[in-house]
Amino acid sequence: MSKSKTALVISAHSADFVWRAGGAIALHASLGYEVTVVCLSYGERGESAKLWKQEGMTLEKVKAGRRVEAENAAKALDVHDIQFFDLGDYPLELDREAKYRLVDVIRAVQPRFMMSHSHYDPYNTDHAYATNVAMECRMIAQAWGHNPGEKVLGAPQLYLFEPHQTERMGWVPDTFLDISDVWDKKRAAIECMEGQEHLWDYYTNVAENRGNHFRRNSGGQAGGRPARYAEGFQSVYPRTVDEL
Amino acid sequence: MSKSKTALVISAHSADFVWRAGGAIALHASLGYEVTVVCLSYGERGESAKLWKQEGMTLEKVKAGRRVEAENAAKALDVHDIQFFDLGDYPLELDREAKYRLVDVIRAVQPRFMMSHSHYDPYNTDHAYATNVAMECRMIAQAWGHNPGEKVLGAPQLYLFEPHQTERMGWVPDTFLDISDVWDKKRAAIECMEGQEHLWDYYTNVAENRGNHFRRNSGGQAGGRPARYAEGFQSVYPRTVDEL
Amino acid sequence: MSKSKTALVISAHSADFVWRAGGAIALHASLGYEVTVVCLSYGERGESAKLWKQEGMTLEKVKAGRRVEAENAAKALDVHDIQFFDLGDYPLELDREAKYRLVDVIRAVQPRFMMSHSHYDPYNTDHAYATNVAMECRMIAQAWGHNPGEKVLGAPQLYLFEPHQTERMGWVPDTFLDISDVWDKKRAAIECMEGQEHLWDYYTNVAENRGNHFRRNSGGQAGGRPARYAEGFQSVYPRTVDEL
Amino acid sequence: MSKSKTALVISAHSADFVWRAGGAIALHASLGYEVTVVCLSYGERGESAKLWKQEGMTLEKVKAGRRVEAENAAKALDVHDIQFFDLGDYPLELDREAKYRLVDVIRAVQPRFMMSHSHYDPYNTDHAYATNVAMECRMIAQAWGHNPGEKVLGAPQLYLFEPHQTERMGWVPDTFLDISDVWDKKRAAIECMEGQEHLWDYYTNVAENRGNHFRRNSGGQAGGRPARYAEGFQSVYPRTVDEL
Amino acid sequence: MSKSKTALVISAHSADFVWRAGGAIALHASLGYEVTVVCLSYGERGESAKLWKQEGMTLEKVKAGRRVEAENAAKALDVHDIQFFDLGDYPLELDREAKYRLVDVIRAVQPRFMMSHSHYDPYNTDHAYATNVAMECRMIAQAWGHNPGEKVLGAPQLYLFEPHQTERMGWVPDTFLDISDVWDKKRAAIECMEGQEHLWDYYTNVAENRGNHFRRNSGGQAGGRPARYAEGFQSVYPRTVDEL
Amino acid sequence: MSKSKTALVISAHSADFVWRAGGAIALHASLGYEVTVVCLSYGERGESAKLWKQEGMTLEKVKAGRRVEAENAAKALDVHDIQFFDLGDYPLELDREAKYRLVDVIRAVQPRFMMSHSHYDPYNTDHAYATNVAMECRMIAQAWGHNPGEKVLGAPQLYLFEPHQTERMGWVPDTFLDISDVWDKKRAAIECMEGQEHLWDYYTNVAENRGNHFRRNSGGQAGGRPARYAEGFQSVYPRTVDEL
């Protein structure tokens, strides 16, 4: 059921994984990872202003439109599997059944690492909620008494991807990933988000400036790596290593 | 002057590198690193209570005794080079000349990573002072206008090794290093510190419990690595990586 | 439905808006604002000790008494509209219906700014809960897909008013408001809270000392404004300005 | 109903009180306290890996086994009363009825102090949840309008006992308790936890090293108390004293 | 030289100990403590605006006036010994000689507890500087190699007394002391500060409101102690106790 | 000597004011402010890599080149007065004489607001040092006993301008300033920094993305202001206002 190299991205709304982790997804796909994306909602109520401004719009049409965009973006990023939980947004809520469904995915994927949102977001309570759920479901997936007989989860890292207005979220990146080689894929995925065109350049700027941070932290003018685009992540758990 | 694999440990007092980074030193030596240790002081005034309780003790005798202990420990850990700056302790202070001397060492070593104390220590202001100096001298070593013509420093990580009473220091480990293979060397080095025998078991307990943390964070009962001894470190700067 | 100058205060219990924001309410009323107050509960179980010590007291009597006090205080402060959601206290809980009711008020009022409690309160979990709800409902009110066709909310500031024992709540005021001109109204409103007479002088002291802080921060002995009474607030979101 | 010297420990899973507060329990029992322990769950799903690896294991068998272990440990620690709420774990959840049941216990015990978990635990969301519930139920127990006529709660301290991997939990001990005199009882209680033998030495190391912290903070080499074993606690509320 | 019950207050400017610790001083004097106060400066430049507004004022006159006020206040508080280091203010600076002078006092007094300012103060950098010096000199006083043969210091608590605008200083009180019995002495000492009459009522308000906090934290309406005046303190080090 | 509308920017190195506050400077100049810039050093050693890579470079040549660049940028931004303290960099240090020189400038300018760097910067210790000095000199400038007879300083806000890698510096913007109208001037000033061309686009991206943050925080898609470029600032002190 699980493959040796896998990753799991838990996205509160259907576009979050593109802006915030698109480079990591495409890069790891290129490294042989099977990356699964779970969209807990479509962001249909709260992140689809442009659609709602159209005549005759309905919730179902918005959801369908958002789904197509997300599927296209997933394709552009070489996502292995994208799942839509369709749990509603603004607010997003998971009952126990929905949590167990997420646990099932975690156990099936057996990810080497997981990704989700920042711990705190005063603009968007769905984001922090998704992260809390990610931590809770990771814990349940590790429980030997949950669906005994299934393969229990190890201890994958949980990376928090970059929120909007990072400093107000208390998000501090500890890891920069060079995504220069897959930037074209990320930009293509970004452009699938037709309803949020105002963010295309915003996240391109972010990627360029994180590239600067990568260069600085890899040596700067004295040997730094010439990364052009990067993504930043905050780790929830410590690393375990054999060499510093 | 510099070699491809090097590291630099900046120790406020002559025993700190043993308790707090002895495993990392011995392990990286076994991996082919040349590890340099700089002891800014001998800890002669503040960390030599047992010696001072002896009859007829003098500052010079204490320093000589502490130096021998540190040299023996360094040998046990396969330290490449140990330097004693003899700057005095309780309080430790570096004037500009002393800082430039440390910059000279940093540039000569060109470390892949550096190590020093926690950012804060209300029990021991020398410790946080040494870390501030380490950050300042790292910055000076990166300046193209400092001794122009010398090879400037890149951007090595600065790892903060484990202080005493971690929680009161605001120290949070983000990296656990498996030191099981070199534990015998670390214990041997610890036993060189004859004046602080009351700490031998203390730091053995620390290493065992950090081993537990390593096991948990590498997978726990579902695939965790059976590390028996570990050391923890806090990173000051973000990592730059090609794979998460 | 909405007027150009409006504000909305979300109060966990029916007296909170008086102690913590009475001056801001009366002052903005005097500036032409229509201020709406929502009392999520009466504080009938947890903040009515004096009433409960009377013979033959019932929950309904306590609620009725608390309501009268709050209405009188609202009148003294020139509140435009006070609404009692009567959701119960100790603990306070809002289901989705109650949240949507609050969203309806937010949208109807279209406040220039909102007010609620501190982010954290280990003595009174209702307070932090109310603030979380305020942030969540502000978010829902901004969603174009929530009751499409209604006027969506802009981005009003959320001010956290002063809790009891500020330092233990992690509350840090960034804005002091001079309420000297309306102090008499605030004191009158305070005296409407007959069941909590032990707090009258407490919050008078607070207002006087915040007046001192206002004077200091507006210039101190070199040009500070002679405010006699003030209130402090913590902002959740950044300000957007044309001049610093 | 209540006795002059009482304490209440709220344990998310049935073994937590042993590792984290066993010394405090036994010591206060020896001082004449009646200590009540509430185990909100048995930890049957998430903290019983060893049992689940046995053939033919069922949830009921795990719970029964965990209960016996906890009862034996409680006996070893001279616990006055141990109550099992059997609310389930991974995740632990309390509805209003369960909270009121806990409030009933708090009021019946009228504890001088309470104990629970750290405020945050990214590995185990049950732990922080239990602490939130402890604060909420302490608040309800103080409400004069909750079950009017009952003796309301005063303001007992809530001590947060030591979590696993303290630094990642943001847990900072402010109080060290000398448990040397009752160490044998704590070790005996620890050994009742047959399913978690891998933690016996871990928590013995913790107790020894906290003993070192006790010695240091009580005077170190200049008059410190020769405590051999200690436990650390973080206080949620300030102390009120007549002498510093 | 030292007596069994002693305390040491380190005051950056000559009036700080009155506003911030006057109650603790008078109370402990009444309990048999010999309390020593060290005024590092007179606050002659920065905290004597009223004097400087007088005609013909000189630095020496200001210092003399401030000294008389501080001596009078010390008398009112039953201070055992007050020492003026006269090191200058705005900014305050201690060279090594001055630090060793303070170490001499610490060792001579052998205080059960020490007091100084908050860790941080963006309005008054002298305050945080004094606290850093207090921690550094406490460390030196503990060093067996500093003036060998002298009685070294144990591990006295360092209490941080209440700053102005507490929340902006990151100061969080963990201990409230009932000073009702000595309030008259504190008020008398406060009134010795003739040049800062604008602060008399300010700190009276503080004492009254801290009295409210004392009452709440000692039991509130269900058994709280009827303290009328209190002072709050933040502890730098953990406590070591035999009973919680 | 002072004018009604003035501001003061304290820049550790000669280019910092351009990247971090160029928009605020030009905007306030356009509003009639006289803006003074103090460059504590030229950044000659640490921030002039490109110059040092040229043949035959000397410290004096670097300083001269950096000065010309800064003067040109100041002209582009309509700076009223730019002063070069030439105190050296990497590390920057101010003795008492240099601090008093800065105090003289502060008092002469009598700024409505001041600006400097973030509180913390592990990459560049000069930056946090400059901010500490700014707070200290602000305090000295407020002292009635410092050069009695001079006009003492009121209580101007100290804005911390945007550092590189904001999240690692603990910098949190609370104020966004719309600089769209003066963006051309800022870009022109940026292009004066010929030695740091790699940062031109970096800070253009920053300004664009801060423009996005301005739009979001001023109302987003429901009435937000269409700012194209913005700068963010963190306030050290609270605001004092008459309307929220």
Q: How are the elements arranged and paired?
A:
The structure is a homohexamer of 244-residue chains.
Chain A: E1 6-11, H1 16-30, E2 34-39, H2 49-52, H3 59-76, E3 81-84, H4 96-109, E4 113-116, H5 125-141, E5 157-160, E6 175-178, H6 183-191, H7 200-217, E7 230-235, E8 239-241
Parallel strand pairs in A: 1-2, 1-4, 2-3, 4-5
Antiparallel strand pairs in A: 5-7, 6-7
Helix pairs in contact in A: 1-6, 3-6, 4-5
Number of separate structural domains of chain A = 1
- Proportion in helices of chain A: 25-40%
Number of DSSP helical runs of chain A:
7
Q: Mean pLDDT score of chain A, rounded?
A: 96
Sheet-strand content of chain A, in percent, reads 15-25%
* Main sheet strand line-up of chain A: 3-2-1-4-5-7-6
Rg value of chain A: 18 Å
The oligomerization state is homohexamer
Any overview of this molecule?
Six copies of one chain form a homohexamer. Chain A contains seven helices and eight strands. The first copy, chain A, is α/β, with parallel strands linked by helices and 244 residues long. Chain A has a single domain, classed as Rossmann fold (3-Layer(aba) Sandwich), CATH 3.40.50.10320. A seven-stranded mixed β-sheet of chain A has the order 3-2-1-4-5-7-6, with helices on both faces. The first copy, chain A, is globular and about 55 Å long. Strand 6 (175-178) of chain D pairs parallel with strand 8 of chain E, so a sheet runs across the interface.
Short description:
Chain A is an alpha/beta fold and 244 residues long. Chain A is 39% helix and 15% strand. Chain A has 7 helices and 8 strands, in the order βαβααβαβαββααββ.
